[in-house]
Amino acid sequence: MNASAVRPIETAVDANQKAVHSDMISPRFYTTDFAEMNRLSVEPVRAEWDKMMAEYEGDNNHDHFQRDEAFAAEMSAGMASLSPEMRQEFLDFLVSSLTSEFSGCVLYNEIRKNVSNPDIKQLMTYLARDESRHAGFINLSLRDFDLGIDLGNLKRTKKYTFFKPKYIYYATYLSEKIGYARYITIFRQLEKHPEKRFHPIFRWFERWCNDEFRHGESFALIMRANPHLLRGANTYWIRFFLLAVYATMYVRDHTRPMLHEAMGLESGEYDYQVFRITTAITQQVFPVALDTDNPAFRRGLERLFAISQAMEKAKARGGIIGRLQQGVCAVQALGTFGRLYFMPVIRQQISPQVRMEPAW
What pTM, to 2 d.p., does this model score? Predict the structure, then answer.
């Protein structure tokens, strides 16, 4: 599937419908058990926690998300060089990224409002602040095309998924860390090849992804302060979320290959570089890692993407035959995911140092 296989984003209505839409690879909104989160303790990592809170309070990015004078000129020149298909992939990227950032903002705000635990309340206040800035900054770029997202309406109408708190820790830690890996890989590529930077928003990615990195550190501290989350049966949940996040990213990225090509990247190579960075980072908390360099693992992800293409064709076909084909695709996807899940994993020693630095 490519950008031409989905409904194009041509109006603000299209953009808002895209943001609200829910499917297997679109960013989701979450809610959780606030009472359980309220009982969290971070005392075992108190020194690291207090240092991190001081970093958040210092707010070193408070003046970063401001568009400079060169923004408009650079945007006009870059976008004029894009084909209509490439423009659609970029707009899809912006809407998806905004939805993902705003999802975090909504979740963190809801936790903040529903807990009294001072440590968790303080953390969620800072996280919501950062994610709100990120979402707002992307929305400004969408408004340049008259495609701004109504964030209030998005919060009211987007479907919510309930996750237990431990699922929130695993999934959010991974999404923040893989977000760092994605953004820093793009930033480093365009730092080397500025002629391929077709939109100025990429100039902000380095400090932006450092926010994502710190957010992940916060959930790493929560999990290290509660080590039962990282052993026993919970290791199977860790494996599940690792695979779910990686597979979702792979399929989503391969639906918009031109976006990476425009940057001088190839979607597959880009994804596996992101996986390698994320695997290196997650050694701070996760006792297992996926063997993403295993040829069988890579074939499995290719298979999932092929199934997703077939699923989209079945949806477009409609009718009884289309629904039957969608059912077949769902069974095939489940079987492929299951085979990937039960592949051997890499056992790793958790780093004795909890905190990490964004060194990539």
Answer: 0.91
